[in-house]
Design goal:
By secondary structure, the chain is mainly alpha-helical. 65% of the residues lie in helices and 0% in strands. It is elongated and about 85 Å long. The mean pLDDT is 79.
């Protein structure tokens, strides 16, 4: 998303010199300097691309959700979320475990049977249930 804003800002950047060329829409020189920075395209994209749909969904939730296209997209997003493919935390966790040399808990504390044999049973499974 951030990359899209930078690309849109670069594409929509104007190069009109204030005071020399005619300003776009006849605006003042200070507003023309703002337009020259490229933020105008990023702001328009933010408003049209995300905020307007949120306002429509907030104002008319039943009509928005009863739209067949929205229903299909929602089901697709839920299916994608359920697969876990987009869960980047899993991927980062695997990389971190490999780099840090983490091992399974059984290496550090032993299996449940080994702990029970050393009289270090789990509290939840111990007699009395403390």
């Amino acid at each position: 998303v951030t990359l899209c804003f930078f690309v849109i800002a670069r594409v929509t950047t104007l190069n009109i010199e204030s005071g020399v060329d005619e300003n776009i829409f006849g605006v003042s020189d200070s507003i023309q300097k703002f337009f020259n920075m490229g933020f105008l395209g990023a702001i328009i994209t933010t408003i049209l691309g995300s905020i307007s749909w949120q306002l429509v969904a907030g104002a008319f939730p039943l009509q928005f959700l009863s739209n067949p296209l929205v229903y299909i997209l929602l089901r697709f997003c839920l299916l994608l979320e359920a697969t876990g493919i987009c869960a980047g935390a899993w991927f980062l966790g695997i990389i971190h475990a490999k780099i840090s040399g983490f091992q399974r808990d059984e290496i550090y504390i032993g299996t449940p049977e080994e702990r029970a044999a050393m009289d270090k049973a789990d509290r939840s499974s111990a007699a009395g249930g403390e």
